[in-house]
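Field guide to reading this record: the first block holds the primary sequence, the second block holds the structure written as discrete tokens, and the final block holds curator observations. Each block starts with its own label. This record concerns M23ase beta-sheet core domain-containing protein, catalogued under organism Streptomyces fulvorobeus.

BLOCK 1 — SEQUENCE
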Amino acid sequence: MRTLTRSKSIGLFIATVAAAGLVPLAAGTAEAAPVAAVAAAGSCPAAGTVTQWYHSGHDGVDIANNRGTAIYSAGAGTVIVSGTASGYGQWIRIRHDDGTVTEYGHMYERTVSVNQRVNSGQLIAYMGSEGQSTGPHLHFEAHASTSSTRGMDPVPYLSARGVSLPCTPGTGTPSTNFTTWGTSVRVRTEPRLSAGVVRTLTGPTAVYVQCQTRGDSVTAEGYTNDAWSYIPALGGYITNIYIDHPDAWLPGVNQC
Ligand SMILES: [Zn+2]
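BLOCK 2 — STRUCTURE
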């Protein structure tokens, strides 16, 4: 694939892409599709061994390590609970900016208080074995909202935010690494033009590209490029033509 320096003329972009049949609308008009909230980059909650995964009798994951191991907020948000609770001994809940909630249990010491604003990856507690626990570990839950009564599987929740378990705090934790450009950029379930559209980006969007792969060849803006980026937070792929970088194949990004 040839590498070209990209023009950022949006008008030309729309006209070219529309002509290529990728955007079924008149040049110069924006598609009215709403943009779903993009999950912000997450952080590894704690280093350790996963001793129990999510299952029907366990609403979260257990990450075991030495007493006193640092525990970090899995994302930016506001502390809504920090205190004692039966079973947990001590617990913390954080409401994130996308409305989801993460929950942390069994800590031996907490370092944040209710209504405190925390960043993704901020120290919030130290691992303990308080409450119903047989050894030092973090019990970590993810909830869809403050009103959900059961946790969801934390593995896809964290994965959508760029964190896979087991994880190492502070390393490999992605922040957004690229920005899209153009309008009406389609995010598809597979790196193919025939694949379903999961959402449409109406304008430049900061994204975390987890990996890239070869897929359908796309021609737009004077390029032909078969590289596609997988963006976990968007739940799909976009052609690399819409990633704002002069190289067709993104440097420093693994192949999917
Ligand atoms: Zn547990």
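BLOCK 3 — OBSERVATIONS
The longest helix spans residues 10-19.
Residues 110 and 125 are 4 Å apart (CA to CA).
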